[in-house]
Amino acid sequence: MDRILPFTTEHKMFQESFSRFVAAEIVPYYDEWEENGIVPREIYKKMGDHGFLCPWVERKEVFLISL
Length: 67
Prior knowledge:
single chain, mainly alpha, extended
């Protein structure tokens, strides 16, 4: 099925960047995290630092929220 709204260049860049992040930062540790039943909090921090969490929120707003 064709998408009604095609992905933009920005969508594709985000997808490629996130894929690289997952391959480097998540895949190598997946089995360990699954065995322990927990994902380290630090991975969420790294995801946020790379702009993968709430990418539509302006950086200054993120700062205000984190206070």
